[in-house]
Description:
Blueprint: H1 6-10, E1 20-25, E2 28-38, E3 49-55, E4 58-62, E5 67-69, E6 74-77, E7 83-98
Antiparallel strand pairs: 1-2, 2-7, 3-6, 3-7, 4-5, 4-7
Amino acid sequence: MQAINLADKLALFSEHFKPRTVGEFNGHDLMVVKVKGPFVWHKHDETDDFFLVLKGRLTIQLRAGDVTLGPGELFVVPRGVEHCPVAEEETHVLLIEPRGTSNTGDAATAAARVVV
């Protein structure tokens, strides 16, 4: 058992929108991801979507209006709500999702699970 340094884990990769699992918590993956530009509009029918910004700024576009987050701010997109994360600059985010949740809402187009 040892502490997980999120900055060290984020330094291991450069790809955007490719989450890396850094730990597990009660059947959930703890993931870090680098984002830049727009992602795809999607939703998760079975689970909420948790975002905590570590560095940078993230806008979560929602059909009802945008939510913009800075470092230390979090937002939970309720299950079934269509959303699109967008970052003007490279932004680092902590995600918490049930293991096996596809980042695009569709297993066919989802990023592979990678543990670092």
